[in-house]
TrEMBL record:
Interacts with microtubules. It holds the Pfam family RMD1-3. It comes from Semnornis frantzii. This is Regulator of microtubule dynamics protein 1. It comes from the Eukaryota. Keywords: Cytoplasm, Cytoskeleton, Repeat, TPR repeat.
Length: 171
């Protein structure tokens, strides 16, 4: 009985120790998640500042580090930054093409991550239009309805966004 009692005590101690380790892991993991989301907010704040300051290259360099992110807010901003970099007169024709397709992929990924994000729809439409410039007139015309649908969805999600209202007017 004494051997059984010691085994039982050891088992209880191990179980309690495992439980404490598990609880500590949950707590640390929770803190890491809060820290990670805080970091995303920090990057977005910095990106918005750079965008407002017209720092296109710095903005792109900041955001491209997060190209594998699952955050739609970061991804649509990266699509916009890629497109803005492509629009610069100092960007070569080859680089403009590369950046246009890159921007489209980021916008597509942003939309996949959050279908309810108005900016993801807006930038998807803009970037799809840009890609059409490289694909030819037939493709551009074929994409026009898809572009319009994304602009309309963006307006449904955010009826006060002046840029999207302007874009649907141009369409």
């Amino acid at each position: 009985t004494q051997v059984l009692r010691k085994s039982l005590q050891r088992g209880i101690a191990l179980s309690a120790g495992s439980f404490l380790v598990y609880e500590a892991h949950k707590l640390i993991s929770g803190l890491a998640e809060v820290h990670a989301s805080f970091k995303v907010e920090e990057v977005i704040e910095q990106a918005d500042y750079l965008y407002g300051s017209g720092e296109t290259e710095k903005l792109y360099q900041l955001l491209v580090q997060h190209k594998n992110s699952d955050d739609a807010e970061l991804l649509w901003r990266l699509a916009r930054a890629s497109r803005d970099l492509a629009q610069l007169s100092s960007t070569s024709a080859e680089e403009k093409r590369k950046l246009a397709y890159e921007a489209f992929e980021y916008a597509k990924k942003a939309l996949e991550k959050n279908e309810s994000n108005f900016a993801a729809h807006k930038w998807y439409g803009i970037c799809l239009s840009d890609v059409g410039d490289f694909e030819g007139i037939k493709t551009k015309i074929g994409n026009a309805i898809i572009i319009k649908e994304h602009f309309q969805r963006a307006i449904e999600l955010n009826p006060k966004d002046a840029t999207t209202i302007h874009l649907i007017g141009i369409w």
